[in-house]
Amino acid sequence: MAPKTDNTEAIVLKFVNEQNRPLNTQNAADALQKFSLKKTAVQKALDSLAESGKITFKEYGKQKLYIARQDQFEIPNAEELALMKEENAKLQEQLQEKRKTISEVESEIKSLQSNLTLEEIQEKDAKLRKEVKEMEEKLIKLRQGVTLVRPEDKKAVEDMYSDKINQWRKRKRMFRDVWDTVTENFPRDIKEFKEELGIEYDEDVGLSLQEYSDLIPHGKKRGRGQ
Predict the structure, then answer these.
(1) Better pLDDT: 112 or 224
(2) What is the pTM of this model?
(3) Which of 3, 12, 99, 209 lies at a 20 to 30 A Cα distance from 31?
(4) How far from chain centre, in Å, is Cα 79?
């Protein structure tokens, strides 16, 4: 239900005074849609307010521009204007600094979101270690001749084992890169921090990547630097 005429004029008058700039009917109608005011009601209210002298208007051809009465506003003197300009300049500078800070934080967030978290690395590391251990046991049995397999099956297992070792090496390097970044200039004792997070290096649990790598047939080992 649309507001009554008096209420409509009050809403339109408040809007015109707050804007304090030339407005046509369409400007006002678009802004006052949230009050369920139709363009015809806004036009009627603007004309009524102008006729009663509560606002002023100027005609440009067929179009009318409405504006708040300026005699109701306090006009700052030269000193006040200078202070306002100075304050505005400071606020603009602060705004630019805030925008720069926000941009830097957003960039940092995007960068962090593109990397694995320590928890994700730990989960992948644990899963990979389990898979490597299973492959190692199978490979040892194959080499001992406990189970006879076809050459193609043996090759598939060796390829899979080699791939897991490569993944282990890659994940280990990724973890080191992330860990070094996180702990760089870290104020606390790194060893205590590591224990608090429950992080264990291969050496802490008696594992050696090199020992597992040595189980790979010579022709399938990665070249140095790969």
Answers:
(1) 112
(2) 0.37
(3) 99
(4) 44
